[in-house]
Amino acid sequence: MYIHDEHIKLPEDPDTVVWKYLDLSKLVDLLLNKQLFMSRSDKFEDQHEGTFSEPTYNEIKKLSADNPDFLKYYKKHREKVVISSWHLNEYESFAMWQIFTQKQEGLAIQSTIGRLQQSLHPEQSFRQYIGEVNYIDYKKEYIPFDNTFFPFLFKRKSFQYEREIRIITDVSGQAITIDNGLKIDVDLCQLIERIYIHPKSENWYKNLVIELVKRLGFDFGIEKSDLESEILI
C-alpha cells in the first residue's frame, strides 16, 4: 500500500518530471520481471543513510538511557528498509549521465511523480512512501523521528546535486530477510513514460535498445538524448 504523510515533502503537481539513470542490464531485469529493484538502505555508498543528525542522535541517546533497545531498534531498522532513488528535474542532467552510466552506454527512464504513485500495487502488504529528500547540515539541524520513515528522507548537504525523490518500502512487519535489496511489483506502463538513450552512444546500441524493448512486448517512446542535438552555427 502507498502511504502519504503531510510532513513528507513532495511536489504537488503530479506531472512533475523525475528520472532514473541506469544501465541496460538493469532495464532488462526491470522489463523481464516487471519488478523494481530497491536497495537496502544501509548498503548505499553514503554510510549516513537512515542515520540521524547529531542533534537528533543526542536526543535519542538521552531517551534510550534507560531503554537501550530504543537505540538498537533504529540501527537494525535500516536492514528492513529499501529505497528506489529518482532524480527530480524537468530536463536531462549531464551530471547524472556521468555518475550513473558508463562507457557511453546507458539509459534514462523518464517518469512523473503521479506515475510513480500509480505504478505501485496497492495490494502489497508492506508500507511504502514516496517523498522528496531534505538536504541538511548533520552537525546542526534536527531530523524528526516520530515517523520511522523520516531518517530515510534526509541527507547531508553535499548530496544536494542529486535532487532525489525516493520510493521507500518498509518490510519490518514481514518475515523477510533482505540481502542487498528487494524487488517490488510495479505497473511498468504507469512507471515508464519514455526511455532516453545515452547521448554518446553509438547507433548499434540505440538499435539494440529499440529492438529489445519491442521484443519484450513494450511500446514505450524511445528517444535519443536531448544532449545529442546537432550544433547550430
Describe the protein's architecture and organization:
This protein is an alpha+beta fold. The chain has one domain (2-228). It is 26% helix and 26% strand. It has helices spanning 24-33, 54-63, 68-77, 94-100, 113-119, 188-191, 203-215; strands spanning 2-3, 17-22, 35-40, 81-88, 107-112, 127-132, 134-136, 154-156, 164-170, 181-185, 194-197, 221-224. Strands 1, 2, 3, 4, 5, 6, 9, 10, 11 and 12 form a ten-stranded mixed sheet that branches. A two-stranded parallel sheet has the order 7-8. Helix 7 (203-215) links the parallel strand 11 (194-197) and strand 12 (221-224). The radius of gyration is 19 Å and the shape is globular.
Q: How many discrete structural domains?
A: 1
**Which regions are unreliable across 5 or more consecutive residues at pLDDT < 50?**
none
Query: Would you report the number of β strands?
Result: 12
Could you tell me the radius of gyration in angstroms? 19 Å
Which class do the helix and strand fractions yield? alpha+beta
Report on the biggest sheet. Answer: 10 strands, mixed
Protein name: DUF2971 domain-containing protein
Organism: Flavobacterium silvaticum
Helix/strand layout:
Elements: E1 2-3, E2 17-22, H1 24-33, E3 35-40, H2 54-63, H3 68-77, E4 81-88, H4 94-100, E5 107-112, H5 113-119, E6 127-132, E7 134-136, E8 154-156, E9 164-170, E10 181-185, H6 188-191, E11 194-197, H7 203-215, E12 221-224
Parallel strand pairs: 1-6, 7-8, 11-12
Antiparallel strand pairs: 2-4, 2-5, 3-4, 3-10, 4-9, 5-11, 6-9
Protein name: DUF2971 domain-containing protein
